[in-house]
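Supplementary Methods, section 5.1.

A reviewer requested that the exact input to the structure prediction be made available. We therefore reproduce it here, unchanged from the version used in the analyses.
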Amino acid sequence: MPKIIIAVEAFTAAASKRGLEVNFDKGKTELLWSITGKGARVAKEQVFHSGQCLRWDSNAGSYSLHVSHQYKHLGTWTQTKHRHTKEINARASAARQQWGQLARSFFTKKLALATRAQVFQSLVVSKMLYNSHVWTGVKEPEWDKWTNQLRGPIALLMKGVLASARKFNHTTDHLFAWCGILPLTQQVHANRLRFAQRLFKQCPTITWRLMQTDDTSGSWTQMLRHSFQWLQRHYDKPHVLPATTDLAHIQLDPYWKGRIKKATRLALHYNMAQAEHSVWQHNFEATLEAAGATLPKDPTATPGPERWMCDLCNKVFQSTRALAMHASREHGYRKKVRYFAVGDTCPVCCQLFHTRHRLAIHLEKNPKCYDVVQACWPPMPQDQVDSLDAEDKQVETELRRAGWWASKAFDPAVQTAGPRLPPLHDPACAILYNKMVSRRPPDEVAYHYLQGRRVEVDNTTHPGLWWHNSDLPSFIFQSPQGVDPGGGAFCMRGLARDAARLHIRALVVVHFFSGYRREGDLHQIIEQAVQTNGDQIFVLSVDLCMQRQKADLATHSALVWWKSRAYAGQLISIGGGPPCETYTAARQSDDLGPRPLRSNLEPLGLPGLTAKEWNQIHIGDRLLRFLLDMLLTMALMGYSGFVEHPQYPTWTRREDVTSIWCLRATKLLRRLNCVTVVSFDQCTCGAQGRKPTTLLLVRLSQVRRSLLALGRGGRCDHHRGAHQALIGKQEDGTFQTAKAKIYPYGLNLVLGQAMHAFAVDHYTDKVAAVLPDEFAPYTEQFFMDHTEVQRDYHG
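The structure derived from this sequence is encoded token-by-token as follows.
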């Protein structure tokens, strides 16, 4: 208190010398006072009884200074006790209000996602980010709370791709990145770095020196250091950045804004790669589980959430809170304490809590008072409770609009004088209870409508097949056959074969990512077999180098179209090798090939890559996910297929390498009963180089047997030095691995014969005699010799 008086009088005197008069009215000049420590309760009560004002007289006159819980300065709310709830709620309220005005009229329209995301960033996100880069003392849970306020609005942009209920299975950052918007906390990093240069240029040097003295947890200096770490992590040329928060470097760097803008774009690429894979992986596993496959469980993980069933309608919920919310909306349930809380003063201890909501909390947390109230009074009638709850709801709505919670305490609980209820077990309690019953008999109370029971989780859905995440191998190498039949849908033959023969309408074999047509390719081998047997089997080679208009398989619409062909029974077998340039073993050879783009810890792309490298990763990942999705669809429908990719580089000594055979999706596919995996050397099939390769085969198990019969169990049996190492560059500047993209004739022969035999085995009288018209755009073919190699990346 004395320090406050000295500061206020000095401030007033300084203003008076400059010809200014300080206005001490409420809302003008106020005191933001956080009262803590010994004697805090007494001090709070004194301030309350004085009308939330400090009054004193001095030689300069009389002072009356209003004490406030929050203060708004330059659009930002500052609260006592160094809290940020008011500002977080205010930011979220403004953003959601802006979003609500356009939710139905714009964001739900069938417009391009980029257009809706741009408007969302400009109108909604800008409200959330205003001045957030100057916050201090914000903890991680508060950042998460602030970010999650926009989970619902951003999920609306993904309508049609992500089911509404699944938005809670992904972080808000992933939802933002999937829509092409940098996550909020990372936008704060960028804004803080931009603000730093303006701060250092326009403020005196003493400002930075004073800031450097405060390096405590949550200080602005520490947050700026974290922003520098974010910048160095995602900038593609970190060597040009300062190692620490160098004031001179920031002030003199003329390209500072450009560097931040570039790092923002690259960080968005990184987050988009993570988000797209997360959403796809969840949908992939959901499809597997819906088809009857058994997903692994983690025995070390915490038990799953409880399940509670409502006895009135048999609906199941994940917690008692969810059950209570359901009972309140559907069955008129009210909390029991609402039938005993009247006014704002506890009749047992005579404490004034100022609101009925805080009184109800007091009764719940203090059984001594609550038991006395229940012993003296019967529950209030329903109509009276509804009336009181309606009044409380209005107060709560006003508090939430102002950015507060319903239980916000603006005034301290103070002791009042007055008659109290008799103690528990006193005969007077029964007398009071009987008198109240005769005065207002209680009717049926709604707190009885909370009727539910705990439902035990059944972990024996598949008693014969139970496995954990620890059973997943580090990478896939060989697999004779998976063990999960998925209730029959993923069997090698049996029920799956009968279902396929029932639904098949056209025997069409598709080779995705085929490259140019060549003599002895997979397409030709299957066609020649067809001419021999006379069966109506059609072959298509699909690649962007041949069908520029229709063969872009990296889009969601392309996946939907090809899956619809499978569901319509117009595909019998598919296969392909998605681009491997971001995984190639040449990237594991120091100084002889391009730098690595992935690692074991960052399999979806290393931070700090260039924009071109990120585009390569995005295209490669989308094409790989396309083929894996198609393989899962073919496996589910009883059809066949394969995916080819370089073998996991077991020869390297580096521990941070990765491969598609390390992905969780491929390891889950490997568990299916209809899937086999084989690793072999392509030189055994006639290739010039050794090129270790792995094939994941869906109902093409004879391919594995044929390949293992070559060489030494599928491995190279040539003499030492017979093959040129596929490392480094050729004379024309292309990498040695480029020529290995073309499948050797022996591999095409093995695959072609197996796919043809599978198609013949599913021949019925219902299959079409001509190629369906839908496939007409893919009949365009370009023939090249073996020296012309198509590109992986067409950007």
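The two ends are 69 Å apart (CA to CA). These observations are discussed further in the main text.
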